[in-house]
């Protein structure tokens, strides 16, 4: 077996055993593009070998999607295949596991009418609302991993020879996901523990507010009563552990929807629906985004914020040291799954119910009452840098260092 | 544009304009393997350009299907994705067009437990029952075309160099579908007319019985009252023409379910569910298959016949001259879509309602009463050769030549 094939097998095994942690008799649903067919087949094989009852692969082709955006009539972007939504919903009810293998080029939808994109995101969000509740409350096991496409590899390594770009991206993915290590499963166990130590510290402190200071950023974020910091591995309703994102370097919680004030500036480009948004500043008053400026993609960003009422508010606060391996690789992946792990970030849109004590069993209305945001969307963007300081402010008003110069301060 | 690319575009255009004959605002549903991605993208593009509202591509991977047969537990083969069935059913109700692009290797399922295959065929047949009624009564436009896979091309051209096999199969497909001609759409119009002349002759004659004589074959097939010969283009409920199979060289009708007597021997291998069945003889008494012998794949053939009650009876009688272009190409395609057009054939299983006067508006029970067979399956097999004579027997008992030495005798 070649070295590449060996790492590919380890990565497929990680996806199945650590990512969704497939259980005997369980169904696995995989969402993927056509880009890495051999890798997907390896995942399917390993899932059956690990006891899966059925593996359903939902293949999508980037070019077919793009042809639709370019050539179909407007009306069709208000529709999302309801059977697909029903399928995912019923499989979630039955306790299936869900894997997404992302590989799209960030430029896939460049030049597409932003209204078409916004309409389709909205239609998808509405159709998949119930399914996404299963995911966002961690009732079921799910994971998001990545595999290269030619266009994505070209975007990330534009200066490499054309025939080496995909290999270089695979290498970067193997490294970021620890698939290049001797025993990747053991490495993930250790990594999981170290993130959980940060989580435990923050959950004891129960800061009332976080105050962010950096060039272009002066932002105060209130944390709701009963907020929970979370990181690395999650546990589903049945008690099975899973890893929702691979890689993951963040510890995160929910902001109080109405308690965000000040200004924040992004530090890495945001790739959204295939478009790049960059050089942007958001101004918050009582949680709501009241001003938006962007050097690139301002219309797309405004469209995102106008998705629904909830997309005017934040739903996630995440901490990642500037020295994280992905930050140190100095690779800009143009993909949130990787780039969010290089930097402190926050998210526009829905808040995770599992980041609140008892939240998994609360209704949407109860969660809102506690300050958790609801939206059909959830989009992370990067705000961290080596110039970022963060203070935690306790109930009694005491300031304690959480981050200094982009690194953990405890 | 290369010569190959030119023919590929013509073929995609044929599929869209002659095959499903897409109408403005219509949805096109495409079932395909992952083998000919570029060709599928061309079809999608041409469908949108011809006015399609939406093109849904349902990709399936042969290797993923095979992994399931090899590694999944028994129980899963009794299940067919009900959402997929629901989707196709509802799209059919809404007047969508359906295209299947077949490409599987005939050896795909070699060595798989025949019980698993039979169970899954049965589950699929049951789940897709309503959808198949739309197809079999020609209420909606549908077409079956082909594209090469590497394994299929290797099977058809085992002696060609590995890097030429796919090109050779494309060439054979272009030739069989007239995509290699200057104006393929005009060529299909002409071909359609010439088949319709045979159809009109037979529909005037209204033979009571056909009597087949050939080595290993002495078979009498009664034709039901009101039977209709059909060939080449069909017309859907709305009056739009479409071409259900490309290529197609046959004119065909329905047998009387209970009026088949004698012995028939196949003349070309039957590829069924990825298995080869060959050298077989079926004996009929009052329509029912009462004896089955096969040199290869006898268990698979018996499994097919045991699918349900209706799979013990015939559902189609089709006439194809031995001099048909596909027969003359001397290529054995190991694929019914092509091989049936090289030879007279009959089909085990369900009968087409549109081959009976008023049949499209009859209930299943009414069709049965007229002698039309019902089954969840429909499998053609080849019985023609240059030694086959067929007589038509009129109401008054007069014998008239229909075929002599494998050729039309009128
Ligand atoms: Zn995050
Ligand atoms: Zn997030
Ligand atoms: Zn036929
Ligand atoms: Zn047939």
Question: Would you mind describing this structure in some detail?
Answer:
Two copies of one chain form a homodimer. Chain A is an alpha+beta fold. In chain A, 33% of the residues lie in helices and 25% in strands. In chain A, 51% of the residues are buried. The complex binds zinc ion (4 copies). One zinc ion binds at residues 316, 347, 378, 380 of chain B. Chains A, B: Belongs to the peptidase M29 family. Chains A, B: This is Aminopeptidase.
Summary keywords:
EC 3.4.11.- (chains A, B); homodimer; alpha+beta; 5-stranded antiparallel sheet; binds zinc ion; metalloprotease (chains A, B); aminopeptidase (chains A, B); 9-stranded antiparallel sheet; M29_Exopeptidase (chains A, B); globular; 13 helices; 410 residues; aminopeptidase activity (chains A, B)
Topology:
The structure is a homodimer of 410-residue chains.
Chain A: H1 3-19, E1 27-33, H2 37-49, E2 54-60, H3 62-71, H4 82-93, E3 97-102, H5 114-127, H6 129-136, E4 142-146, H7 150-156, H8 165-176, H9 184-205, E5 209-214, E6 217-222, E7 230-231, E8 234-235, E9 241-242, E10 251-253, E11 260-265, E12 270-272, E13 275-285, E14 288-296, H10 298-305, E15 314-319, H11 325-328, H12 336-339, E16 345-349, H13 364-369, E17 378-382, E18 389-393, E19 399-404, E20 407-408
The structure holds zinc ion (4 copies).
Can you give me a brief rundown of this structure?
2 copies of one chain form a homodimer. With 410 residues, chain A is an alpha+beta fold.
